[in-house]
Prior knowledge:
Blueprint: E1 5-8, H1 12-23, E2 28-32, H2 36-40, E3 47-48, H3 50-58, H4 63-68, E4 70-72, E5 74-79, E6 82-87, H5 88-91, E7 97-99, H6 102-116, E8 119-122, E9 125-130, E10 138-143, E11 146-151, E12 154-157, H7 164-167, E13 175-190, E14 200-203, E15 209-215, E16 218-225, H8 236-246, H9 249-254, E17 260-274, E18 277-278, E19 281-283, E20 289-290, H10 298-319, H11 323-350, H12 358-373, H13 375-386
Helix pairs in contact: 1-6, 1-10, 10-11, 12-13
Amino acid sequence: MRTQVAIIGSGPSGLLLGQLLHLAGIDTIILERRSRDYVLGRIRAGVLEEGTLNLLDRAGVSDRLRKEGLIHTGFDICFSGERHRIDLSKLTNGKKVVVYGQTEITRDLMAAREASSAATVYEALDVEITDFDTKRPRVGYRHDGQTHEIDCDFIAGCDGFHGICRASVPEDAIVTYEKVYPFGWLGLLSETPPVSEELIYVNDERGFALCSMRSPTRTRCYVQCSLSDTIEQWPDDRFWSELKGRLDPETAATLLTGPAIEKSIAPLRSFVAEPMRFGSLLLAGDAAHIVPPTGAKGLNLAASDIHYLSAALIDFYASGNDAELGEYSRRALARIWKAERFSWWMTTLLHQLPEDGDISTKLQQAELEYLFESRAAQTMLAENYVGLPY
Length: 390
Protein backbone atom coordinates (compact mmCIF):
# COMPACT_ATOMS: atom_id res chain seq x y z
CA MET A 1 0.00 0.00 0.00
CA ARG A 2 1.29 3.47 -0.88
CA THR A 3 0.34 6.97 0.25
CA GLN A 4 2.04 10.34 0.52
CA VAL A 5 1.32 11.04 4.21
CA ALA A 6 0.41 8.36 6.75
CA ILE A 7 -1.43 9.95 9.68
CA ILE A 8 -1.45 8.05 12.96
CA GLY A 9 -4.46 9.01 15.08
CA SER A 10 -7.98 10.17 14.19
CA GLY A 11 -8.52 12.79 16.85
CA PRO A 12 -9.10 16.39 15.79
CA SER A 13 -5.44 16.98 14.86
CA GLY A 14 -5.16 13.93 12.61
CA LEU A 15 -8.54 14.50 10.97
CA LEU A 16 -7.89 18.23 10.46
CA LEU A 17 -4.50 17.53 8.89
CA GLY A 18 -6.07 14.92 6.63
CA GLN A 19 -8.78 17.34 5.50
CA LEU A 20 -6.40 20.21 4.75
CA LEU A 21 -4.06 17.91 2.81
CA HIS A 22 -6.99 16.39 0.92
CA LEU A 23 -8.11 19.86 -0.20
CA ALA A 24 -4.56 20.42 -1.48
CA GLY A 25 -4.64 17.19 -3.49
CA ILE A 26 -2.28 15.27 -1.19
CA ASP A 27 -3.04 11.60 -0.58
CA THR A 28 -3.32 10.41 3.03
CA ILE A 29 -4.27 7.34 5.06
CA ILE A 30 -5.39 7.71 8.68
CA LEU A 31 -4.83 4.84 11.11
CA GLU A 32 -6.72 4.76 14.42
CA ARG A 33 -6.38 1.99 16.99
CA ARG A 34 -9.83 2.63 18.48
CA SER A 35 -13.25 2.28 16.89
CA ARG A 36 -15.09 5.21 15.35
CA ASP A 37 -17.70 5.12 18.12
CA TYR A 38 -15.02 5.13 20.81
CA VAL A 39 -13.38 8.21 19.31
CA LEU A 40 -16.73 10.02 19.17
CA GLY A 41 -17.46 9.03 22.77
CA ARG A 42 -14.47 10.91 24.19
CA ILE A 43 -15.64 14.00 26.11
CA ARG A 44 -13.26 16.92 25.76
CA ALA A 45 -13.31 20.68 26.14
CA GLY A 46 -14.26 23.02 23.34
CA VAL A 47 -13.30 26.67 23.86
CA LEU A 48 -12.01 27.70 20.43
CA GLU A 49 -9.65 30.54 19.60
CA GLU A 50 -10.25 32.63 16.49
CA GLY A 51 -7.22 31.04 14.83
CA THR A 52 -8.80 27.61 15.29
CA LEU A 53 -12.11 28.89 13.92
CA ASN A 54 -10.40 30.30 10.84
CA LEU A 55 -8.52 27.03 10.29
CA LEU A 56 -11.77 25.05 10.46
CA ASP A 57 -13.24 27.52 7.95
CA ARG A 58 -10.32 26.80 5.61
CA ALA A 59 -10.93 23.08 6.03
CA GLY A 60 -14.56 23.53 5.01
CA VAL A 61 -15.96 21.97 8.19
CA SER A 62 -17.30 24.98 10.09
CA ASP A 63 -20.90 25.32 8.87
CA ARG A 64 -22.48 23.65 11.89
CA LEU A 65 -19.96 25.25 14.25
CA ARG A 66 -20.84 28.73 12.99
CA LYS A 67 -24.56 28.01 13.48
CA GLU A 68 -24.45 26.22 16.84
CA GLY A 69 -21.29 27.50 18.52
CA LEU A 70 -21.74 29.82 21.50
CA ILE A 71 -19.89 33.13 21.07
CA HIS A 72 -18.25 34.36 24.28
CA THR A 73 -16.84 37.86 24.55
CA GLY A 74 -15.62 37.41 28.13
CA PHE A 75 -15.65 35.26 31.25
CA ASP A 76 -15.82 35.69 35.03
CA ILE A 77 -13.32 34.97 37.77
CA CYS A 78 -14.93 34.42 41.16
CA PHE A 79 -12.77 35.23 44.19
CA SER A 80 -13.68 35.98 47.81
CA GLY A 81 -17.37 35.63 47.01
CA GLU A 82 -17.37 38.15 44.13
CA ARG A 83 -17.44 37.69 40.35
CA HIS A 84 -15.13 39.84 38.23
CA ARG A 85 -15.61 39.93 34.45
CA ILE A 86 -12.70 39.78 32.02
CA ASP A 87 -13.97 41.53 28.88
CA LEU A 88 -12.07 39.68 26.17
CA SER A 89 -13.45 41.65 23.22
CA LYS A 90 -12.91 45.05 24.79
CA LEU A 91 -9.34 44.17 25.73
CA THR A 92 -8.39 42.62 22.35
CA ASN A 93 -10.03 44.89 19.75
CA GLY A 94 -13.10 42.74 19.29
CA LYS A 95 -11.70 39.20 19.45
CA LYS A 96 -13.73 36.40 21.01
CA VAL A 97 -13.84 32.67 21.66
CA VAL A 98 -16.51 30.16 20.67
CA VAL A 99 -17.71 27.23 22.79
CA TYR A 100 -18.26 24.14 20.65
CA GLY A 101 -17.51 20.65 21.94
CA GLN A 102 -14.46 18.80 20.69
CA THR A 103 -16.69 15.78 20.07
CA GLU A 104 -18.71 17.86 17.62
CA ILE A 105 -15.56 19.06 15.84
CA THR A 106 -14.49 15.42 15.52
CA ARG A 107 -17.93 14.52 14.16
CA ASP A 108 -17.76 17.30 11.55
CA LEU A 109 -14.25 16.29 10.50
CA MET A 110 -15.24 12.62 10.26
CA ALA A 111 -18.16 13.55 8.00
CA ALA A 112 -15.84 15.53 5.73
CA ARG A 113 -13.37 12.62 5.66
CA GLU A 114 -16.10 10.18 4.66
CA ALA A 115 -17.38 12.54 1.97
CA SER A 116 -13.87 12.79 0.50
CA SER A 117 -13.55 8.98 0.27
CA ALA A 118 -10.06 9.29 1.73
CA ALA A 119 -8.94 6.15 3.55
CA THR A 120 -9.37 5.77 7.31
CA VAL A 121 -8.68 2.49 9.08
CA TYR A 122 -10.29 2.16 12.51
CA GLU A 123 -9.20 -0.55 14.95
CA ALA A 124 -5.75 -0.68 13.36
CA LEU A 125 -3.82 -2.79 15.87
CA ASP A 126 -0.10 -3.20 16.60
CA VAL A 127 0.85 -0.11 14.63
CA GLU A 128 4.61 0.12 14.09
CA ILE A 129 6.56 2.89 12.38
CA THR A 130 10.00 2.22 10.90
CA ASP A 131 12.66 3.85 8.73
CA PHE A 132 11.46 7.37 9.53
CA ASP A 133 15.09 8.44 9.58
CA THR A 134 15.10 7.81 5.82
CA LYS A 135 13.09 9.16 2.89
CA ARG A 136 11.12 5.90 2.70
CA PRO A 137 9.36 5.48 6.04
CA ARG A 138 6.96 2.59 6.57
CA VAL A 139 3.98 1.90 8.78
CA GLY A 140 2.88 -1.61 9.67
CA TYR A 141 -0.39 -2.59 11.32
CA ARG A 142 -2.86 -5.42 11.78
CA HIS A 143 -6.53 -5.16 10.86
CA ASP A 144 -9.22 -7.86 10.72
CA GLY A 145 -6.60 -10.47 11.47
CA GLN A 146 -4.35 -9.52 8.55
CA THR A 147 -1.08 -7.59 8.52
CA HIS A 148 -0.57 -4.57 6.27
CA GLU A 149 2.29 -2.25 5.39
CA ILE A 150 2.17 1.33 4.11
CA ASP A 151 5.00 2.98 2.18
CA CYS A 152 4.86 6.76 2.46
CA ASP A 153 6.82 10.00 2.25
CA PHE A 154 5.98 11.23 5.73
CA ILE A 155 4.42 9.99 8.96
CA ALA A 156 2.33 12.46 10.98
CA GLY A 157 2.25 11.44 14.63
CA CYS A 158 -1.16 12.67 15.83
CA ASP A 159 -1.73 9.74 18.19
CA GLY A 160 -1.73 11.49 21.55
CA PHE A 161 0.36 11.44 24.70
CA HIS A 162 0.36 7.63 24.99
CA GLY A 163 0.75 6.94 21.27
CA ILE A 164 3.39 4.93 19.43
CA CYS A 165 4.95 7.77 17.42
CA ARG A 166 6.82 9.71 20.10
CA ALA A 167 7.64 6.43 21.86
CA SER A 168 9.38 5.22 18.68
CA VAL A 169 11.91 8.07 18.70
CA PRO A 170 15.32 7.09 20.16
CA GLU A 171 15.73 8.49 23.67
CA ASP A 172 18.91 10.36 22.79
CA ALA A 173 17.12 12.24 19.97
CA ILE A 174 14.37 13.82 22.06
CA VAL A 175 14.18 16.00 25.16
CA THR A 176 11.06 16.11 27.32
CA TYR A 177 9.98 18.66 29.92
CA GLU A 178 7.24 17.83 32.40
CA LYS A 179 5.43 19.14 35.46
CA VAL A 180 2.78 16.94 37.08
CA TYR A 181 0.33 18.84 39.29
CA PRO A 182 -0.65 17.28 42.64
CA PHE A 183 -4.42 17.48 42.01
CA GLY A 184 -6.99 16.64 39.38
CA TRP A 185 -10.23 17.92 37.86
CA LEU A 186 -13.44 16.06 38.60
CA GLY A 187 -15.76 16.85 35.70
CA LEU A 188 -19.51 16.27 35.45
CA LEU A 189 -21.68 16.64 32.34
CA SER A 190 -25.41 17.08 32.81
CA GLU A 191 -28.52 17.92 30.78
CA THR A 192 -29.12 21.18 32.64
CA PRO A 193 -28.90 24.80 31.46
CA PRO A 194 -25.64 26.59 32.34
CA VAL A 195 -25.68 28.77 35.43
CA SER A 196 -24.15 31.62 33.41
CA GLU A 197 -23.99 32.60 29.74
CA GLU A 198 -20.19 32.73 30.05
CA LEU A 199 -17.63 30.62 31.85
CA ILE A 200 -16.99 31.15 35.56
CA TYR A 201 -13.52 30.32 36.94
CA VAL A 202 -13.41 30.05 40.72
CA ASN A 203 -10.58 30.45 43.22
CA ASP A 204 -11.96 29.34 46.59
CA GLU A 205 -10.35 28.14 49.80
CA ARG A 206 -12.06 24.77 49.22
CA GLY A 207 -10.42 24.49 45.80
CA PHE A 208 -10.75 25.52 42.17
CA ALA A 209 -14.04 25.19 40.28
CA LEU A 210 -15.22 25.92 36.75
CA CYS A 211 -18.76 26.33 35.42
CA SER A 212 -18.77 25.75 31.68
CA MET A 213 -21.18 24.44 29.06
CA ARG A 214 -21.49 22.48 25.84
CA SER A 215 -24.78 24.03 24.68
CA PRO A 216 -27.64 26.16 26.05
CA THR A 217 -29.09 22.98 27.61
CA ARG A 218 -25.94 21.04 28.55
CA THR A 219 -23.66 21.97 31.46
CA ARG A 220 -20.07 20.91 32.07
CA CYS A 221 -18.67 21.71 35.52
CA TYR A 222 -15.45 20.86 37.33
CA VAL A 223 -14.06 20.89 40.86
CA GLN A 224 -10.47 20.48 41.99
CA CYS A 225 -10.01 17.10 43.70
CA SER A 226 -7.33 14.80 45.04
CA LEU A 227 -5.58 12.48 42.60
CA SER A 228 -6.36 9.64 45.02
CA ASP A 229 -10.12 10.25 44.68
CA THR A 230 -12.31 7.86 42.71
CA ILE A 231 -15.58 8.45 40.86
CA GLU A 232 -17.34 6.23 43.38
CA GLN A 233 -16.43 8.71 46.13
CA TRP A 234 -18.24 11.47 44.23
CA PRO A 235 -21.95 10.72 43.83
CA ASP A 236 -23.85 13.47 42.06
CA ASP A 237 -25.24 15.04 45.23
CA ARG A 238 -21.76 15.41 46.71
CA PHE A 239 -20.44 17.00 43.50
CA TRP A 240 -23.20 19.59 43.26
CA SER A 241 -22.96 20.40 46.98
CA GLU A 242 -19.21 20.93 46.70
CA LEU A 243 -19.57 23.08 43.59
CA LYS A 244 -22.17 25.28 45.28
CA GLY A 245 -19.89 25.67 48.28
CA ARG A 246 -17.17 27.12 46.06
CA LEU A 247 -19.40 29.56 44.15
CA ASP A 248 -20.56 32.98 45.29
CA PRO A 249 -23.95 32.79 47.07
CA GLU A 250 -25.96 34.41 44.26
CA THR A 251 -24.62 32.03 41.62
CA ALA A 252 -24.96 29.01 43.88
CA ALA A 253 -28.62 29.86 44.49
CA THR A 254 -29.41 29.82 40.76
CA LEU A 255 -27.42 26.67 39.87
CA LEU A 256 -29.67 23.95 38.44
CA THR A 257 -28.49 20.42 39.14
CA GLY A 258 -29.24 17.10 37.50
CA PRO A 259 -27.97 13.54 37.10
CA ALA A 260 -24.56 13.09 35.50
CA ILE A 261 -24.50 11.75 31.95
CA GLU A 262 -20.69 11.56 32.17
CA LYS A 263 -18.27 11.93 35.05
CA SER A 264 -14.49 11.60 35.09
CA ILE A 265 -11.33 12.61 36.93
CA ALA A 266 -8.49 14.06 34.86
CA PRO A 267 -4.92 14.56 36.12
CA LEU A 268 -3.16 17.81 35.17
CA ARG A 269 0.29 18.09 33.64
CA SER A 270 2.47 20.40 31.60
CA PHE A 271 4.55 18.48 29.04
CA VAL A 272 6.62 19.36 25.97
CA ALA A 273 8.78 17.16 23.74
CA GLU A 274 11.50 18.75 21.61
CA PRO A 275 12.00 18.71 18.68
CA MET A 276 8.82 17.78 16.81
CA ARG A 277 10.47 16.51 13.62
CA PHE A 278 12.61 13.39 13.29
CA GLY A 279 13.44 12.92 9.63
CA SER A 280 10.19 11.88 7.99
CA LEU A 281 8.28 11.69 11.29
CA LEU A 282 6.46 14.83 12.41
CA LEU A 283 4.68 15.04 15.77
CA ALA A 284 1.60 17.18 16.38
CA GLY A 285 -0.92 17.76 19.14
CA ASP A 286 -0.85 15.75 22.35
CA ALA A 287 1.89 13.53 20.94
CA ALA A 288 4.23 16.50 21.43
CA HIS A 289 2.72 18.52 24.27
CA ILE A 290 0.12 18.59 27.03
CA VAL A 291 -1.21 21.63 28.90
CA PRO A 292 -3.39 21.75 32.00
CA PRO A 293 -6.93 22.58 30.83
CA THR A 294 -7.21 25.78 32.89
CA GLY A 295 -6.23 28.04 29.99
CA ALA A 296 -8.33 26.22 27.33
CA LYS A 297 -5.29 25.64 25.14
CA GLY A 298 -5.08 21.88 24.44
CA LEU A 299 -7.26 21.66 21.33
CA ASN A 300 -6.15 25.09 20.13
CA LEU A 301 -2.47 24.14 20.34
CA ALA A 302 -3.18 21.01 18.32
CA ALA A 303 -4.86 23.20 15.70
CA SER A 304 -1.92 25.60 15.52
CA ASP A 305 0.45 22.65 15.06
CA ILE A 306 -1.68 21.54 12.12
CA HIS A 307 -1.64 25.08 10.71
CA TYR A 308 2.18 24.98 10.56
CA LEU A 309 2.45 21.32 9.55
CA SER A 310 -0.14 21.38 6.77
CA ALA A 311 1.39 24.54 5.28
CA ALA A 312 4.85 22.95 5.32
CA LEU A 313 3.66 19.72 3.66
CA ILE A 314 1.62 21.57 1.05
CA ASP A 315 4.65 23.72 0.22
CA PHE A 316 6.85 20.61 -0.06
CA TYR A 317 4.54 18.92 -2.56
CA ALA A 318 4.11 22.15 -4.52
CA SER A 319 7.77 23.13 -4.69
CA GLY A 320 9.81 20.04 -3.82
CA ASN A 321 11.63 22.15 -1.24
CA ASP A 322 11.66 21.02 2.41
CA ALA A 323 12.72 24.38 3.87
CA GLU A 324 9.27 24.93 5.41
CA LEU A 325 9.33 21.44 6.90
CA GLY A 326 12.69 22.28 8.40
CA GLU A 327 11.09 25.22 10.20
CA TYR A 328 8.02 23.34 11.42
CA SER A 329 9.34 22.34 14.83
CA ARG A 330 10.80 25.76 15.65
CA ARG A 331 7.66 27.64 14.63
CA ALA A 332 5.29 25.31 16.45
CA LEU A 333 7.37 25.21 19.65
CA ALA A 334 7.64 29.00 19.84
CA ARG A 335 3.85 29.19 20.17
CA ILE A 336 3.59 26.05 22.31
CA TRP A 337 5.87 27.41 25.04
CA LYS A 338 3.87 30.64 25.28
CA ALA A 339 0.67 28.62 25.71
CA GLU A 340 2.40 26.37 28.26
CA ARG A 341 3.39 29.46 30.24
CA PHE A 342 -0.13 30.85 30.15
CA SER A 343 -1.74 27.55 31.16
CA TRP A 344 0.73 27.15 34.04
CA TRP A 345 0.02 30.73 35.18
CA MET A 346 -3.76 30.23 35.10
CA THR A 347 -3.41 26.94 36.96
CA THR A 348 -1.22 28.31 39.75
CA LEU A 349 -3.41 31.42 40.00
CA LEU A 350 -6.71 29.61 40.53
CA HIS A 351 -6.01 26.31 42.32
CA GLN A 352 -5.32 25.60 45.95
CA LEU A 353 -1.63 24.69 46.31
CA PRO A 354 -1.26 23.27 49.83
CA GLU A 355 2.15 21.83 49.05
CA ASP A 356 3.47 25.39 48.61
CA GLY A 357 2.35 26.49 52.07
CA ASP A 358 0.44 29.57 53.21
CA ILE A 359 2.58 31.88 51.08
CA SER A 360 0.87 30.62 47.91
CA THR A 361 -2.51 31.81 49.21
CA LYS A 362 -1.16 35.28 49.92
CA LEU A 363 0.57 35.48 46.55
CA GLN A 364 -2.61 34.38 44.74
CA GLN A 365 -4.60 37.03 46.60
CA ALA A 366 -2.13 39.74 45.62
CA GLU A 367 -2.04 38.54 42.01
CA LEU A 368 -5.83 38.46 41.69
CA GLU A 369 -6.27 41.87 43.31
CA TYR A 370 -3.69 43.30 40.91
CA LEU A 371 -5.42 41.59 37.97
CA PHE A 372 -8.82 43.05 38.84
CA GLU A 373 -7.32 46.55 39.21
CA SER A 374 -4.99 46.60 36.19
CA ARG A 375 -6.13 46.92 32.59
CA ALA A 376 -2.62 45.93 31.48
CA ALA A 377 -2.78 42.69 33.47
CA GLN A 378 -6.26 41.93 32.13
CA THR A 379 -5.04 42.61 28.57
CA MET A 380 -2.25 40.06 29.01
CA LEU A 381 -4.78 37.48 30.17
CA ALA A 382 -7.22 38.34 27.37
CA GLU A 383 -4.61 38.28 24.59
CA ASN A 384 -3.48 34.82 25.62
CA TYR A 385 -6.98 33.48 26.20
CA VAL A 386 -8.32 34.45 22.75
CA GLY A 387 -5.11 33.09 21.22
CA LEU A 388 -1.78 34.52 20.21
CA PRO A 389 -1.17 35.03 16.47
CA TYR A 390 0.12 32.13 14.40
